[in-house]
């Protein structure tokens, strides 16, 4: 495996990214820790998203080279589950929005497989593969409709995104399907029928792994960043052709943390 380029950039320049990259002799991964939508905290020193990301990263750094996707799902789930008290389990079963949560995309060198656990994306030989949350687009459409119908000028939403606040209750409701109709790593059993596995042959491949912080994933980091800059310049609220549940808030680097790694195998 030869790394060509990689980058991690936090959406908020005042905070550390909840996205991470892991590179070992046997695995390359991008991990996207989910930003908390409630007040429950599991670490005094890290946000829930960054803490979840670091726990999953620890699993990959210690993983045996022949680890399967199934074994990874079990190990990563256990790493998160260890952070929960037994007395919390019933409550967390009913309230997925309060769990430590991460998505992860992993390349296994030995198995020549790419595993997509949750909302992540990759390019393999120029072909895009992704695994978005099933409710995301519907909620993005709802947010865009609120903004278009609002009497407030669009610039208002770049400093006070009341349209996102309006969809949060619907987002929390949709999250009750977490690890039922879609997969994430959150300490509860992962429905592996919702974890795509892409198997590569033994010819040389160029691969890009990335979090969902890139609305358009391109074969190079420069092109991907240029597409992101174009999106910000032309539609900073993300309510046009590309719709998202949040926009480019004033003073932020982007609408989401982003991680990108390109390599050859």
Structural account:
- The protein is globular and about 55 Å long.
- The protein has a single domain, classed as Phosphatase 2c, domain 1 (4-Layer Sandwich), CATH 3.60.40.
- The mean pLDDT is 96.
- It has helices spanning 48-61, 69-81, 89-94, 136-149, 156-159, 162-174, 221-234; strands spanning 2-9, 19-23, 27-33, 102-108, 113-117, 121-124, 127-130, 197-199, 206-210, 258-264.
- The strands form 2 sheets. The protein has a 5-stranded antiparallel sheet with strand order 1-10-9-6-7, with no helix packed on it.
- With 265 residues, it is of the alpha+beta class.
Short description:
The protein is α+β, with helices and mostly antiparallel strands and 265 residues long.
> How many structural units, i.e. domains?
1
Looking at CATH, the homologous superfamily is: PPM-type phosphatase domain
CATH class: Alpha Beta
Which range does the strand content fall in? Answer: 15-25%
Tell me the span between the first and last alpha carbons.
Answer: 5 Å
Q: Kindly report the average pLDDT value.
A: 96
Residue share in helix: 25-40%
Structural class estimated from helices and strands: alpha+beta
SSE pattern: EEEHHHEEEEHHHEEHE
Notable characteristics:
about 260 residues; alpha+beta; Phosphatase 2c, domain 1; five-stranded antiparallel sheet
List the helices and strands and how they pair.
Blueprint: E1 2-9, E2 19-23, E3 27-33, H1 48-61, H2 69-81, H3 89-94, E4 102-108, E5 113-117, E6 121-124, E7 127-130, H4 136-149, H5 156-159, H6 162-174, E8 197-199, E9 206-210, H7 221-234, E10 258-264
Antiparallel strand pairs: 1-10, 2-3, 3-4, 4-5, 5-8, 6-7, 6-9, 9-10
Helix pairs in contact: 1-2, 4-6
């Amino acid at each position: 495996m030869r790394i060509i380029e990689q980058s991690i950039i936090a959406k908020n320049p005042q905070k550390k990214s909840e996205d991470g990259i892991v590179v070992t002799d046997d695995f390359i991964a991008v991990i996207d820790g989910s930003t908390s939508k409630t007040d429950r905290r599991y670490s005094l020193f890290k946000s829930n998203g960054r803490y979840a990301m670091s726990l999953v990263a620890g699993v990959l750094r210690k993983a045996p080279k022949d680890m399967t996707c199934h074994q990874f799902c079990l190990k990563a789930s256990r790493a998160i589950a260890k952070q929960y008290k037994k007395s919390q389990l019933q409550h967390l079963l009913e309230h997925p929005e309060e769990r430590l949560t991460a998505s992860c995309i992993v390349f296994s060198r030995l198995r020549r497989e790419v595993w997509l656990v949750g909302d992540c994306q990759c390019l393999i030989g120029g072909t895009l593969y992704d695994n978005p949350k099933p409710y995301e687009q519907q909620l993005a459409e709802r947010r865009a409709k609120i903004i278009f119908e609002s009497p407030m000028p669009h610039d208002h939403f770049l400093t006070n995104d009341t349209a996102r606040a309006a969809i949060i209750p619907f987002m929390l409701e949709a999250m009750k399907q977490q690890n039922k109709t879609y997969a994430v790593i959150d300490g509860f059993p992962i429905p592996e029928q919702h974890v795509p596995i892409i198997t590569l042959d033994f010819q040389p491949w160029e691969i890009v792994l990335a979090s969902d912080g890139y609305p358009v994933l391109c074969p190079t980091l420069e092109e991907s960043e240029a597409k992101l800059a174009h999106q910000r310049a032309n539609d900073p609220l993300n309510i046009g052709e590309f719709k998202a549940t949040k926009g480019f808030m004033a003073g932020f680097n982007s609408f989401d943390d982003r991680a990108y790694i390109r390599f050859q195998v």
